[in-house]
Amino acid sequence: MRNFLLIFFTIFSCVVHAQNPTKIIKGTVFIDSIPTQDVHIINKKLTLGAISNENGQFEILAEENNILLISHLNLEYKEITVSKENIKAKNIVIYVDSKTHMLDEVVLEKQKNILEIDQDILANAPVVNAKTLKLPYANVKPKDDKTVKIESGITIGLSGLVNALNGNNKKKKLLKKLKVEDQNIANIRKHYTDGFFIRQLKIKEEHINSFLESCISKGIINLYRKDKVLELTSVLIENSKHSPYLLENEHIRLTQK
Q1: What is the 3-state secondary structure (H, E, C) of 141-201?
Q2: Where is the signal peptide (predicted)?
Q3: Domain of 195?
């Protein structure tokens, strides 16, 4: 009897399976007619899933009338029923519309300050100035610096014009340039140390700065700023060969004086 029941259930299962065969079907997902990657396809009945590749293609186990859940970040949620034709052809094509979200219009308004909200505050506000605060410079009149408009349309103060005519601006620029050069010379000397100039270039210690000043026209400051140490060293060595500040040329330099 037990063997008979086993044979009966086996035959029944085969008949049911024959009526609804489970097959691997291939499919393609399109978003707005474009094959789409990373779409999730889930068979609700078999609780199996698949993900489409870069060509929108996937494979999944399915039976006739199974429901496939289609989901993706940029897709509308959709359910597809597997038809008899899909099982027979072992293929299914799924078209889904892209998801769109319409946001409510947002209007940003300028925040009002307290004076716009309460006009009485402005009307009754006390006068605040140098006189009411009794500051020491309350009665001092500002210096009238008259201006002159030249042909180019630029307006300059008379004091600035006078300084320019007297050469004060040029002097200031020259002093600033010399100050920058002195600082750069000091930096170069510190970088190489006095031993380099004395032992390698044969420059007397008291003439190192003078030697570096004579090399400014060779572009040593720009080379130092750009950290071109090899080129800077080459320039210093080359200029030291015929420099009047060499120990061996000391008598020539004194004669020229």
Answers
A1: CCCCCCEEECCCCCEEEHHHHHHHHHCHHHHHHHHHHHHHHHHHHHHHHHHHHHHHHHHHC
A2: 1-18
A3: 174-256
Do 73 and 50 meet the contact criterion of CB atoms below 8 Å apart?
no
pLDDT number for residue 131: 73
The pLDDT assigned to 124 comes to 63
Number of separate domains in the chain: 2
Query: Is 54 within the bounds of a domain?
Result: yes
Q: Which residues of the chain register pLDDT less than 50?
A: 1-18, 100-104, 106, 150, 152-153, 251-254, 257
pLDDT at 2: 46
Domain boundary at 43, 69, 96, which? 96
Cβ pair 222, 195 in contact under 8 A: no
Is 156 inside any structural domain?
A: no
Residue at 247 is within a domain: yes
Q: Is residue 167 part of a domain?
A: no
Crossing angle between the packed helical segments 168-195 and 158-166, to the nearest 10 degrees: 60
Contacts of 119 (CB under 8 A, 6+ apart): none
CA 146 to the chain's CA centroid: 47
